[in-house]
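sorry for the late reply, my laptop died twice this morning and i had to redo everyting from scratch. anyway the thing you sent over, i finally got around to it. pasting the sequence first so we're on the same page, its 196 residues, then the predicted structure underneath. double check i copied it right bc i was rushing
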Amino acid sequence: EYEIKFLNPAAGSLLEAQPDQLVGEIFPFEVQTDEVTELEIPDQDDLTRIVELSAVDLIWEGESALLVILRDITQRRQAELELTNEKERLSVTLDSIADAVIASNKHGLVERLNNEAARLIGIFNQEAHGQPLNQILKLKHPKTGKNIEDPTATLMDPNFAETPSKLGLDLERFDGEIIKVTAETRCILDDEGQQH
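ok and here's the structure:
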C-alpha cells in the first residue's frame, strides 16, 4: 500500500477529485514497478475510462517512494476498436465481391486478397500476404507469352490497356494450370490525394 504524497491536477482530474483531497489517502490501485498495466476506471457518468498505469522507484523528500504515471488511453483504445471494426467490414465486403480482388501496397507487396482471388490463383490469403505481387499474380503478356514482371505498372500503362481486353491474359495458377482472365488495376488515394 502506498500513501499519496502529491497529485498533479491532471491526476486529480483523472481520479475525479481535487488533488489536496487525496493527499494522505492510500493509492487505490495495485502498483507494480517497471510494468505497465491497464485499468478500467468508472467515471461519474457511469462510463468506463481505460487508464495506463506505470510506476518507477525514486527518492521523494529523502524517502523511498514511487512515481506513478496515469495516462487516459480511452480514445486510443476506441480508435483501435473502430479501426479493427472497419477492417472487418472491409474484409466482409471484399469477400462478398464476385470478382477476384487483390490489394497491394505501394511497394508491390500483397496486403490482402479476397476469397475469389484466392480460389482463382490457388493460394491462401495468409500465404500471399507480404509476397511480391508478381509472385502471386503470375500473368503472361498476351503477345510475348513472357511473365509480366510488374503487373501494376503494366496494367496501368495506357499503351497496354487495350491489349488484354481484346486477347485476355494467361494466368498461371499455383498448381501450374493456365487460365484466361481479364485484369484491371486501380489506385487508392489517401487523404492527401497520393496514389497507393
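Helices lie at 9-14, 19-22, 74-96, 115-121, 125-128, 133-136, 151-156, 158-167.
thats about all i looked at so far, will dig more tmrw
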